[in-house]
Amino acid sequence: MNSNAQLNTFVDLIDDPDIRFRKFFEYNTKIEIDPKYSIEKYIRSGRQLIRMANVYYSEQDYFQAFILYSRFAVLYGQNLKTHPDYSKCNKTDVSEINRELNTVVFPKAEKLKIYIKDLFVTQAKEHRTQNEQKIFDNNEIDKNKDLQQNEQEQTNFENKLTDSVCNIEQSFKSKYNFRQIILPNDTIEKFLEKAFANTIHNVETCGILAGKLNHNKFFISHVVVPKQKGTSDTCSTENESELCQFIDQNDLITLGWIHTHPSQTAFLSSIDLHTHYGYQIMIPEAIAIVCAPSYNQNSIFILNEEGFKELSKCNLNGFHPHSKIPQLFDECDHVLKDNNMKINIIDLRMISNLSNI
Fold first, then answer.
1. CA dihedral defined by 332, 335, 338, 341, rounded to 10 degrees?
2. CA separation (Å) from 124 to 67, 118, 128, 174, 309?
3. Of the four, 132, 146, 326, 331, which is 20 to 30 A from 346 by CA?
């Protein structure tokens, strides 16, 4: 799970800017195609990747913007062609990808590449100058005392460099270095109201969590309830094109999902695990909210490292056993509930034409 929350800019390689940039690029663009993730979902995720990159670019967060433009270029310019269903891609989608690559991604990525490489060169020069000054000063200082001072100065210098390229609030820390998600505090209550008719009949209900990226934080603003089919322990979306159309028309980013367990506790079933893998493979911070009204339980989960490893190798469908030790999912530590925000519930089950929204 490679998140964008904290950047590894390879400060330890500061004296060699060319190697530093190559390591930085390779680390942040290492992407493998998972054939279990449908080609259609890859296409849709690409649009959201561009949205996030454009936000970072407009906010002058050039490191994050470069990473996302570069990921798009590697994923959609090269790796996607290895997907077993690539030949079935809609020609319009392929044309859209090529247009984004040639008119947006390549020009901006190249411009940012020059900016970052120049910055690395400047930092290398500053580092060499600082070291030369240290050598000069050290001639007048006791060697043992000087060694301790140099180590502290080096640490301070590296911390300064890290701070200069990472747009992170130091007060917020996540176990997985995730970007923070801000969730309106009324989200679960409002969703359960929409799900009530199904809940009393022991039928699951699901919704998609969507929002915006702003200054390296995700703000969930919408729960989109798609047309769907549910049972007592499953729920599947229908007419996904309508759901995607709403997301795209409103320039939203899919940040996870929410669903009910009408007669069970709050946990992720094997089907839930595979469903959430599809969200989290593209945005590591994506969350799964599970509401268990019969037990008055509401939990927010993510797949952990063990979950990612196991699910990436699992090709089974339906309900099937997964490892319980170690557990494959954790409670989130990167979600902040905000009392000042209000969630928008969009119930596509009740809408025949999106133009009416």
1. -120
2. 21, 10, 6, 31, 38
3. 331
